[in-house]
Request: fold
Amino acid sequence: MSTTSQNSNPLPIFTRENYDFWSIKMKTYFTSQDLWDIVDNDFNNPENSTMEQLRQLKKDQQKDAKALYALQQALHDTIFPRIMGATTAREDGIP
Reply:
C-alpha cells in the first residue's frame, strides 16, 4: 500500500521490516521539505512572546503538523494505532 505526500512524491511505508532503510528515507524526506529541524529538535512556546516569536511559533506548529502528517502517512495501518494519539511529530511512541 503506497501513500503519497502533499507534493505527490511517494512516501516509504514502514511495515515493521527494514526500519533502518525507512528511517534514512524519512530523514531525507523531512530534510527536503525543511521539516527535519522540527522532528529532530522540537520547538517551544515562549512565555510573554513578542509578535515575531508568535509568528515563528505558528510557522513551527505548521511545520510540525506537516511532519506528523507525513509520519502518519508513512506507517502501515497495522502500525498506525501506536501513534494515533500523537499530537506532535516528536512525541514518544513514534518509530
